[in-house]
Amino acid sequence: MQISKYIRFILILILVLNIKYTNAQFVEIGILGGASNYSGDLSNESVAFKETHLAAALFGRYNFTNKWAVKGFAGYGKISGDDKNYAISPSSSNPDGNLQYWRNLNFNSHIFEFSVQAEYNLLPNDLNSYNTRPFIPYIFAGIGIVNFNPKTTINGTEVELQPLGTEGQGTTSNNSLKKYDLTVYSVPIGFGFRQKISEAFFLGIEAGVRFTGSNYLDDVGGQYADATVVGAAYGAKAQALSDRSIERTGNGQSHFLEGDPRSDRKIFTKDLYFMAGITISYVFRGKGMECPNF
After folding, report:
1. How far apart, in whole angstroms, are the C-alpha atoms of residue 156 and residue 118?
2. Among 2.60.120.280, 1.10.10.10, 2.60.120.460, 2.40.160.20, what is the CATH number of 3-285?
């Protein structure tokens, strides 16, 4: 499915929800401030907490019943990963080291998310009363798009990785292998809670994982290409970044052969990223209406 179709679907969903719930009594707008991280090849399919970065978001929420809400979410974060966090160098007890040591890759990327999320309150949200101070745990799931652009540094210069075809995408040897898209779908799933702290304000905490449609948030997802072919297509930097094991061997020779796996995924076939933080939101109250109780 093309990205334009994802965008069209999200816009239609927002329009339908807006038409259906224009008369809803309670609308919230808010901000999230917190952190982002990722799980993929360069995090060894785990989460490296040292690679955590600041994140922020704006959101709008329709509380159309005391249990259900729909939320529009626009978020920003940063993700990064480094094989050095997991590298095991060759030794007498482990003469081969490990893939992370020889692969020797790292990346960072800004991420921009736009999503629509459905929320279910585990306890009723009694917004009809100005005096109650409800504690509201909730779960959410949705659909969205995320834009990313992995970069790394070589010889003191930061470079974008996708245009370099580091796994041979678009070269004479891999002409059928296309460069990965920088905008893909995301599926946010998570939980949170919020506490009413005044007549019009909620304070809360929210955390969620984002499943994505790409295995290339970190520019790693396939096999090693012939570095000289990559260099002929995209230049010397592309050749050097397609195989950084040469920096480890010290003899100008690669540790890998063409076709060797560059990705060693075992659990998830796609990359994930996470967003979590503190939220604060303001409630706009309609007049002469009550929030339905179901």
Report:
1. 44
2. 2.40.160.20
d(CA 279, CA 238): 42
pLDDT by residue for the chain (294 residues), tens digit each? 455 665 565 555 555 555 444 444 588 999 999 999 999 999 998 999 999 999 999 999 998 888 999 999 999 999 999 999 999 999 988 989 999 999 999 999 999 999 999 999 999 887 666 566 678 999 999 999 999 999 999 999 999 999 999 999 999 888 889 999 999 999 999 999 999 888 889 999 999 999 999 999 999 999 999 999 999 999 999 999 999 999 999 898 999 999 999 998 888 889 999 999 999 999 886 554 444 444
For the whole prediction, is pTM greater than 0.85?
Answer: yes
Q: Nearest-CA neighbor of 119 among 137, 100, 91, 139?
A: 139
Name the E strands within the chain.
26-39, 53-63, 68-82, 106-121, 135-148, 151-154, 157-160, 183-196, 201-212, 272-285
Cα–Cα distances in Å, from 28 out to 61, 153, 168, 188, 225?
Answer: 5, 42, 48, 20, 51
